[in-house]
Amino acid sequence: MKSKSSKTMRSLRGRMSAVRCCVLGLMGLMLAPLSGQAKVKETYSLQGRKVLFVYGGWEGHAPVPCRDLLVPWMREEGAEVTVCDNLDIYTDKERMATFDLIIQIWTMGSITGEQERGLLDAVRNGAGLAGWHGGLGDAFRNNTEYQFMVGGQWVAHPGGPVDYDVVITDHRDPVTKGLKNFHMHSE
Questions:
Q1: C-alpha distances in Å from residue 178, one per residue of 5, 16, 169, 170
Q2: Lower CB density within 10 Å: C or N end of the chain?
Q3: Per-residue tens of pLDDT for the chain, all 187 residues
Q4: Is 70 exposed, middle or buried (0-12, 13-18, 19+ CB in 10 A)?
């Protein structure tokens, strides 16, 4: 039987992985170019922006917990957010033309040619594209045009998962408050 502390550590590791992905996603949102923006300082506001949040694919990258963290935050920031758990919206040319920003969390999935064209066209026509980790860089392994748009493709974890220690250096920060140092075996 597993100890209570072992279960707690596994739970903490899972939450930390989801939080890590979402924090990186928030950083991507803050830096993502938005349609019609001429000045970098203006890209930080989501107020009045139309955002498409598409999530799914491999559950290991926590698309649902990331959705549950990011969508409410974007709405609080004043964005009008459309949430989709499939890629079919990419084929709706009229709707795709209305979005300022497309956020995608879709690891290891496949996309049809029509869906890919719809996404590529929306970005070519000025929609910003944001994502992080495997949700963007390991989304559609068989779609070269998508990979060119993203700027790369995930290939492998060099050396596989590794052991490392996480050392909390600022215990006053709201993100780390209450956390203790811990050991990880991860990518």
A1: 16, 13, 12, 10
A2: N
A3: 444 444 444 444 454 455 555 554 554 544 444 444 444 444 468 999 999 999 999 998 899 999 999 999 999 999 999 999 999 999 999 999 999 999 999 999 999 999 999 999 999 999 999 998 888 999 999 999 999 999 988 888 888 888 999 999 998 888 888 889 999 888 7
A4: buried
